[in-house]
Automatic annotation (TrEMBL):
Lineage: Bacteria, Bacillati, Bacillota, Clostridia, Lachnospirales
Name this polypeptide is given: Uncharacterized protein
Residue intervals passing through the bilayer: 18-36
Keyword terms of this UniProt record: Membrane, Transmembrane, Transmembrane helix
Domain of life assignment: Bacteria
């Protein structure tokens, strides 16, 4: 009797068993699920890198445009600012208080330069904040506008030209 039962019981192929298909589904979902996630992570990483590179390039371009005041021009502006601060205002000049806020120069290096002179002790011990607009034309620097402490506009017609004008030789 056992022989009949054994003969009638035929082993089913593995692909007809339920657990075989569960294993296949789990493996396939792991493969496709991971690769999709990996692609998404890689895409996000590439986007982040591209964005960072673009921001760096934009920053360098901006710095190149705004921070490349030619040395000769910057030297003349510093000298005129020093003359004005020491001579017209009567303050001690510090090169660390000098800052070019903005400038607009043409191809011949003529134009305007805005200076902020802000000593670390401005408002204390007589130190004064000074805003200047300097025009530059063919090596001649001239203070066109001056404001002290952000409140008092200076009447430049009352200030000696030796403090408001500077001519450099190129």
């Amino acid at each position: 009797m056992k022989d009949k039962a054994t003969k009638n019981k035929v082993k089913r192929p593995i692909y007809k068993r339920w657990w075989f298909w569960v294993i296949i589904v789990v493996i396939l979902s792991a493969i496709f699920g991971t690769s999709g996630e990996k692609d998404g992570i890689e895409d996000r990483a590439k986007d982040t890198i591209n964005s960072a590179e673009q921001q760096t390039e934009e920053k360098q371009e901006t710095e190149t445009k705004s921070d490349t005041l030619p040395t000769l021009i910057d030297g003349g502006c510093r000298a005129l600012t020093k003359n004005f601060v020491e001579g017209a205002i009567g303050e001690e000049y510090s090169m660390f208080a000098y800052n070019v806020e903005e400038f607009e120069l043409d191809e011949n290096e003529n134009g305007t330069i805005k200076i902020l002179y802000l000593p670390s002790n401005a408002g204390e011990e007589g130190a004064t904040k000074v805003n200047l607009t300097i025009s530059l034309k063919d090596g001649a620097y001239k203070i066109e506008y001056a404001m002290l402490s952000g409140l008092y506009e200076v009447d430049l017609t009352q200030v000696s030209k030796k403090y408001t004008e500077l001519i450099t030789s190129d």
